[in-house]
Amino acid sequence: PRLANQIAAGEVVERPASVVKELVENSLDAGATRIELDVERGGHKRIRLRDNGSGIVKDELELALSRHATSKIATLDDLEQILSLGFRGEALASISAVSRLTLTSKPATQEQAWQASCEGRDMAVTLQPAAHPDGTTIDVADIFYNTPARRKFLRTEKTEYQHIEDVIKRIALSRPDVTFILRHNDKVTKRYAATGTDQLAVRVGQVCGKAFIEQAIHTRCDYESIQLEAWLGNAEQLRSSNDCQYSFVNGRGMRDKLILHALRQAYESVLAVAEQPAFVVYLTINPKEVDVNVHPAKHEVRFQQSRLVHDFICKTVCDALSSWAD
Ligand code: ADP
Ligand code: MG
User: Fold this and answer.
1) Distance from Cα 318 to the centre of ligand 2, integer Å
2) Torsion angles phi and psi, residue 291, rounded to 5
């Protein structure tokens, strides 16, 4: 099973940032409202996440570390309308196959916290009592220590850390109601205090910076079952903030080609600029008209009426940019 897990890990665990993504999504699935992440040496050394979510009961700790153990699919009906972010049940098993993983958790209903760790060649899980507040801590140390071929592909600590930061930014933009605290080598590097869900602008400002939010063009438009809310960088911001490009479809971060294309076309036609604009775009659409599970790891979506969605985005952005250019 260990080899199978290591192979599966290749799909889930590409680099430290992919570990972070899986762990944070699990915390959100568990209803956490506060997520703290401690990273050492770009994640090469350690990634530790602590949340205040629902926790894992003692009897399920071992199961949580085994493959295809997901508490998130009860019936086929669930599968068809996947509401939670995770549904494959192999992230933790995959991560533990390529790192030294410790899982400590305390559900509010349980008096004692318990800690599970995988050890030895057979990855036997050992359980011991621990001290921990309500919630979960997952400690992932020495990533790829046992898969040297993969370890070689790790980039510099700085680069890996930037990928981690980007994952956190992306998720933070989709969950303004959750507090995120990010530390690198014991120093707080990002702190996003929870805001109301109706205060998206506050979160966009926290993540993309004061300069961006103060100058960006804000627009909001509805068409039938589609809604778009966006903060669009102006011409001066084109060059400086081209790393700030975030799009979300029904709350999930997506690097979607169609959205990017529609934005580019709008910027090109109104401002005559071919550079990539800075933007934060939220698209809300009837879930029945979009297939998000085309490839969960690649953040791809497929719109049933792709032409319509494209043109709606392009027109909305064009209108916003023109009124600003006037
Ligand atoms: P999946 O998220 O696809 O179900 P994972 O391997 O990511 O699979 O997690 C396995 C299980 O462990 C989850 O289904 C969940 O029950 C539990 N779990 C993982 N992380 C947490 C967490 N932070 N809080 C509560 N439960 C968790
Ligand atoms: Mg998961």
Assistant:
1) 38
2) -105, 105
